[in-house]
Structure formats: C-alpha cells, structure tokens
UniProtKB/TrEMBL annotation:
Alphabetical list of SUPFAM superfamilies matching this protein: Calpain large subunit, middle domain (domain III), Cysteine proteinases, EF-hand
Active site: C68, H222, N246
Lineage: Eukaryota, Metazoa, Chordata, Craniata, Vertebrata
Name recorded for this polypeptide: Calpain-12
Keyword Hydrolase: yes
GO molecular function: calcium ion binding; calcium-dependent cysteine-type endopeptidase activity
Every Calpain catalytic domain range: 43-304
Recorded superkingdom: Eukaryota
Organism: Neovison vison (American mink)
Metal-binding recorded as keyword: yes
Family: Belongs to the peptidase C2 family.
C-alpha cells in the first residue's frame, strides 16, 4: 500500500467533473489499499485533456515519489511516437462517450498486458502528488504512472529502480548497461547509433548516500534521459555534446555548455537556434568528457525484433523465449561452476549455425546496434567466423514482492562451449550434466547483479553451447524469463527429459523370500493370509533392520501412512497377500540399493538435489516440471530425502506407470482413460 496515501491530509480527488459519477465506482481498491474514498470527489480541472497537442518529454515532471528511473524512461519514450502509441493507445480522451477509464499497454515477460485504470489520482493541497505535466490540464503521464503502479501492486513499490526496467516494459526490448570509465572508447558513437535506431537511452549518476544536488546542478543518485547527440567544431577542435533531461523538469547542469554558458556564442546563429533552449525545463547539453566524469552508467534498451519488424536482410528475426523458476532444493544451484550443486541449475542448449556477415564499419569502439554484424559496432575476431547472440535474463514479478520486504536477487548466466561433445546434447540428461558440466570450457558470462534484467551480447564461434542461468546463491527462489535473439539462424531448447520408465523398473523383480521372512509374514497374517497396514509396518521394520545388519547400513523405518500407500499400490487397498508382498519386497531391496548409492555418508538421507539422479537410476525418466513437483513434495525442511520418502515416491511412480501402460492407445505415448480410470490413477498421487 502506498505509504503516502495513508496520511490523513491526503484525499483522492476526481480531477475531472465529467467523470465524477463513474470515477468513484471504478476506484482501484487493490492499488489504493482498500480505502473507500467515495464521497470525497471534487472538481480538480475544468477542461481536462488526456493529451494537449502532442506527447513530449516536457509532459513528464517528477512529483513526490522517488521514481525518477520510471519517469526518465517515459520521457525518452516520447521521442518516438510510434513506440509511444503502443504504450498509450491513441483515440482516448475525456470527450466522445467518455467512460471514466483509460487503457495502457505494458510488456510483461513475453506478452503485452492491457492495464485499465480509472481517472482518480492522488492529490494534496490542490496539486497532483506524483508525476505531472507542465500543462496543468494534461493527464496522460499521471495516468500512465498509475497504470504502472497498478500492474506492480502499488505506488510504493515504484520507489527506486533502473531505467532499463521501465524501458523494457515500454517496448519489450532488451536492456543493457554500460559501466563508464574515463577512457571508454566509442561511447558517443554508441549513444548516437542507439538513438538513431530508436533505442531508449538513459544515464545514472550513482551515489552511495541517496539523492543530493551538486554545486554544478547535477543530482547524484538520480536517473536522466539521454535525448540527443551533436558534434560541433570550434576552430580545430571537435566537441561532442550529449543532451540530457532531468525528469524533475527543472534543476539543470550549470557547467560547460549549459544554457547560460558563453561557449554557445562561438557557434553560428542557426546552430544556437536549433540546439539551445534557454529555459528551466530540466533539459541541457553536456560535453562528453564532463559526462564521463559525472555519470557512472549508460542504460540502452535495444528494441526487440517484434517491435523493429523484419530484419534488414529480410530473413526475419530468430527469437526464443523460455519461462522458468529456480526452486530451493531442486534447481537453485548457485552461480559458481565448481560447487556440487551448480549442475542442477536450469540449462538451455544453444546451437549457432550461421556466422555473421563481415561488414566495413567506421564506427568507433565496440558498440553500435542491431545490424548485420549484430554487435555494438564492427565484427571482431579477425578472420575467425563468429555469431552474435543477445541473451537476456529477467526476474519475473519481483518488484511487486517489495511490499513483502523482498528485493531483486543477484542473478546472471554462464555460457559453456560443448565442443566435440556436441553430439551428446541430444542425450544430455541429469547424470551426464553432473559428470560433464564441470569440464566444459566457459565461452562467456554475464555480470551477476541485483537487477531485474541482466543481458549480454555474446560473440561465439558456430557450434553447440549450454546457457546456464542462475541466482548467485544456492537456494534462492525466483521466477525468470530467458530470451535469445539473433539475426542469423540459431536453435535453442531447454535441456529436459521425456517422461518414461525403463521396462526393468516396472517388471516384478524375482526375489524369493527367505524362510524366516515368509514365516514371519504368515505369523502376522494369521487366518486372513493378508497383512493390514499396521501389520505390514511391523513386518517391514523387522525385515529392514535385519537387512541393514547384513549390509552395514543404517536401519530404515517405514511409517504407517507409507504402508497404507504401499497397500494401495501393491495390494487391493485394504490388505496385502504373500504374493503381493513378495513383489513389494523385491522392489524395496532394489530401491534400497539405489538409495544407498546416493546416501554416501550412510546418514539415512540424501540431498534433495540428488532425488532426480536417484529416480533416474531407479529407471524413471521425468521432465523438469514433474521432477520439481516431486522434489518439493518429498524433501524435508533441511532439503533432505530419507529412505521412507524415496520409497513413497518410487512406489507411486511404479504404480502410475504400470496403470497407464495398460491404457496406451497405440499413439506416441498417448494414454486414454475414462473418468473412473483417471480417478484410480489419481489415488496414487
């Protein structure tokens, strides 16, 4: 809930008289903390306009909310009407059958979301609390801010962020961060090239003590839009200028090439008229060397292929989008390749088939934009053919969790070259991953940082690669989206397994009972000649303890609830005959042998990360989704799986596979069940 909206002297006013009736009815309760403000409406603006003339960067002036990152991105978006119309659909206004609501389109993790908001805005002392326009009666920017707040849960969670996050949400593009230093080559060319390609560009003056204003008019810890570049010549000197804008709509740079700087007098009058606007609007020019001295990062959002349309070569863009999740105890293996759990991280096979076309390019430095060379600037690597691929990793839905005290995790990804083992990729599974992944050559890696979006352009030779996204710390949980872009042909698939079971795992093992065990069964069964769940528990307790003594392992216990499950799986649901017990005992001994392989310290438990390996060794091949569900169900709070839990899991899989195999319809693994048959299967889960 937005902290500011809970203060007693803040009311929600309906700013538009025409919407007084509908405004109160369409109050977004979720957004405003459930406070009923009906009856508080009053007229705020006599002649409201959604858009006055056109949408420009001067329409975006920051209010009391610390969301300069969002507003700087919105100001940059206004430079490109084509992009802005996607976010702010045209044809909306306060006339022509106005219904009291507005629509906005925002990109969220692979799809465009239509966000509908009413026309009620937070007002204090007769003024909008948050973003406003220089023109008092224009409201597209405050309503866009409200739509973004609604999408993420509240205004409060918009405090603090990175421009690239909003850039990506406005365009579906791919955000990259350039960390600046004094001798960085080609930055001016990179920014100029990016702006020419309609990329959104911003800059941040980082601070370790929050926002504060410097003597020369800059605000440290603040985000600025980069809205233009220009080269001017003074005598024999070429000066490279960047145009920036403070989303406050005021407070400007006062150093060289500022609005009042006398250096402008040395330029031709037509240049001054075209470039210089002498008013307090938050926009100013700055020389590149001063920019590098005061700013720490440049954030560039390249437009995604779906926004850009067909590639210049006419061959179309090659895109893959994967949705995944890191789960504690299953596939959240940490970011260090040498650790024992790293192999559990999600893995994606990337095959680069066609190298880039070499181009002559006189651009400076290592950046440029989406072009035939595919990288920022000219292709590198000499005569060695290289493929350019852009990888983007996004943490999904994390900002809305700020209300629960959670922040962005530190995340990133590694790219490993498979090399001569490429032929194995079609057979790559968990056991091979654990064995071979530590020996693969790392071809590239992204930075690991606590941002929503982490991206990297990789220049790789044609061949096979594994992309391994991970959180920095093993056990961190989050949803993620991985995107792969290239102009040249590539293939990308998630490393997964097909659900199946080895015939050996489903066959009844031939395991004759020892005489003493058979006699014990008959003694417990009595005249019924069948065991109940409690009797089975007693028999297994004695039998497993005797087996543990002969194998020098820790004795395993099977609880009553698991025994009831075993009766359902191997008996008739109520009791277990000697014949059925013989089948069960044969399976138990095989599962015990499999479990012991992964219980290396003979503690009676194995790490939950290894459950997938143990099930694989027992003959069950399961996909990632199913294995994740089983791991979450059968691990304990210490991320351990004991023998009883493993038996319960293996027994269920055995019975379900057996049951379904009787109903195969002759197709490719298609099982046709009646409702009654499905209910029988469901009782095993």
């Amino acid at each position: 809930v937005a902290w500011a909206l809970l203060q007693e002297d803040i009311l929600f006013y309906n700013p538009f008289p025409v919407a007084t009736r509908l405004g109160a009815q369409t109050l977004s309760v979720d957004l405003f903390g459930g406070k009923d403000t009906r009856g508080l409406s009053t007229e705020f603006c006599a002649e409201p306009q959604f858009i006055c003339e056109d949408m420009s960067r001067t329409d975006v002036c920051q209010g009391r909310l610390g969301n300069c990152w969002f507003l700087a991105a919105a100001a940059s978006l206004t430079l490109y009407p084509r992009l802005l119309c996607r976010v702010v659909p045209p044809g909306q206004g306060f006339q022509d059958d106005y219904a009291g609501v507005f629509h906005f389109q925002l990109w969220q993790f692979g799809r465009w979301v239509d966000v509908v908001v009413d026309d009620r805005l937070p007002v204090r002392e007769g003024k909008l609390m948050f973003v406003r326009s220089h023109q008092r009666n224009e409201f597209w920017a405050p309503l866009l801010e409200k739509a973004y707040a609604k999408l993420h849960g509240s205004y409060e969670v918009m405090r603090g962020g990175h421009m690239n996050e909003a850039f990506v949400d406005f365009t579906g593009g791919v955000g990259e961060v350039l960390y600046l230093r004094q001798d960085i080559p080609g930055l001016f060319s990179a920014v100029r090239h990016a702006l020419a390609k309609e990329s959104l560009v911003g800059a941040t003056a980082l601070s370790d003590r929050g926002e504060y204003r410097t003597e020369d008019g800059l605000v440290k810890g603040h985000a600025y839009s980069v809205t233009g570049t220009y080269k001017v010549t003074l005598g024999f000197t070429k000066v490279r200028l960047l145009r920036l804008r403070n989303p406050w709509g005021r407070v400007e740079w006062t150093g060289a090439w500022s609005d009042s700087c006398p250096r402008w007098d040395a330029l031709p009058a037509e240049w001054r008229e075209a470039l210089l606007v002498k008013k307090e609007d938050g926009e100013f020019w700055m020389e590149l060397k001063d920019f590098l001295r005061h700013f720490n990062t440049v954030q560039i959002c390249s437009l995604s292929p779906e926004v850009l349309g067909p590639s210049p070569a006419g061959g179309g863009w090659h895109i893959h989008i994967f949705q995944g999740r890191w789960v504690r105890g299953f596939n959240s293996g940490g970011s260090l390749p040498g650790t024992e759990t790293f192999w559990t991280n999600p893995q994606f096979r990337l095959t680069l088939l066609e190298p880039d076309e070499e181009e002559d390019d006189d651009e400076e430095g290592p950046w440029g934009g989406w072009g035939a060379a595919g990288a920022w600037g000219p292709a590198r690597g000499g005569r060695i053919p290289k493929c350019t691929v852009l990888l983007s990793l996004i943490q999904r839905n994390r900002r809305r969790l700020r209300a629960q005290g959670l922040t962005y995790l530190t995340v990133g990804f590694h790219v490993f070259q498979v090399g001569p083992l490429g032929w194995l990729l079609g057979l790559w599974d968990s056991p091979r991953s654990r064995e071979l992944l530590p020996g693969l050559l790392r071809a590239d890696r992204s930075p690991f940082c606590a941002r929503r979006d982490v991206s990297r352009r990789c220049r790789l030779r044609p061949g096979h690669y594994l992309v391994v996204p991970s959180a920095a710390h093993a056990g961190d949980e989050a949803d993620f989206t991985l995107r792969v872009f290239s102009e040249r042909r590539h293939t990308a698939v998630e490393i997964d397994d097909i659900i199946s079971a080895d015939l050996q795992a489903l066959m009844v093992p031939y395991m004759p009972l020892e005489l003493g065990l058979e006699q014990l069964f008959q003694e417990l069964a009595g005249e019924e000649e069948a065991l109940s769940a409690s009797q089975l528990q007693t028999l297994l307790s004695i039998a497993l303890e005797a087996h543990a003594r002969t194998s020098a392992r820790t004795s395993a216990e099977i609880g009553l609830r698991t025994c009831e499950q075993l009766l359902c799986c191997f008996g008739n649901g109520q009791s277990l005959t000697l014949h059925h017990f013989q089948q069960l005992w044969g399976h138990l001994l095989e599962w015990q042998a499999t479990f012991d392989k992964f219980d290396e310290d003979a503690s009676g438990t194995m790490n939950s990360y290894e459950l997938r390996l143990a099930l694989n060794a027992a003959g069950f091949h399961l996909n990632n989704q199913l294995t994740q569900a089983l791991t979450s169900r059968y691990r304990d709070s210490r991320l351990r799986v004991d023998f009883e839990r493993f038996v319960s899991c293996a027994a269920q899989l055995t019975c379900i596979f057996r049951h379904c195999s009787r109903h195969l319809d002759g197709g490719e693994g298609v099982v046709c069940l009646t409702r009654r048959q499905w209910m029988e299967v469901a009782t095993f889960s």
